Amino acid sequence: MRGLNCYIRRPFLEPKETYCIRDAAEILCMPLPDVLGWMEVGELEGVDTPQGVRLPWGELAFFGMDFWPQEAPMKAIAAALGADLADAIPELLRLADLEVHIPRLEILALERLADRDGKSVDTVLARELLDVVSAHSEYLATASPGFAPALRWPQ
Questions:
Q1: What is the DSSP letter of 69?
Q2: Percentage of the chain with pLDDT > 70?
Q3: Nearest to 123 by CA among 86, 71, 88, 83
Q4: Which helix (H) or strand (E) holds 27?
Q5: Which phi and psi (to 5°) does residue 57 adopt?
Q6: What is the mean pLDDT of the chain?
Q7: Which of 30, 111, 135, 145 could form a disulfide linkage to 34, CB 3.0–4.6 angstroms apart?
């Protein structure tokens, strides 16, 4: 994991406006053909520059958050950044603990969906909650200072 931490730290602590595809592959810890494949299907969108097609920082960071250790990407990013986390990630996007009491049926459903998808329950629940957040984003943006920029991050 130490090597991966190095790659995670790079785009957050030494961000560039854009990255060449080879550097992006290294940061994402993926083979170059895989990155090109993701670009071909539109999951990674490059921009034309005088140096050729490059990946913008926001695109690389957002994509990496989905592909770095599949169990809780933000936890992996927080661990990799350590004390530098506050300088790299908006406060509203940093992890916090939440204790909830929900019916066992919902717990069972989350566990089964996590097993099916090869994810953690945290990851499945976080993605479902992001849908709720997005659906109510207009209200939340007016009710919570800093909400709109955090929701758009890293764009």
A1: S
A2: 88
A3: 71
A4: helix 21-28
A5: -55, -50
A6: 84
A7: 30
Tell me the C-alpha distance between 83 and 8, whole Å: 14
Q: Is the dihedral of CA 111, 117, 120, 123 positive or negative?
A: negative
pTM: 0.55
Q: Which residue has 């992996």 as its token pair?
A: 76
Residue from 72, 76, 74, 65 nearest 5 by CA: 76
End-to-end CA gap in the chain: 27
64: Cβ contacts below 8 Å, ≥ 6 apart: 8, 11, 27, 28, 73
Let me know: does 122 contact 72? Beta carbons within 8 Å.
Answer: yes
Sign of the alpha-carbon dihedral angle for 56, 61, 66, 68? positive
Strand-strand pairing, 47-49 and 52-56: antiparallel
Strands of 47-49's sheet in order across? 18-20, 52-56, 47-49
Q: With b meaning 16 or more CB within 10 Å and e meaning fewer, what string describes 31-44?
A: eeeebeebbeeeeb
* Phi and psi torsions of 114, nearest 5°: -65, -45
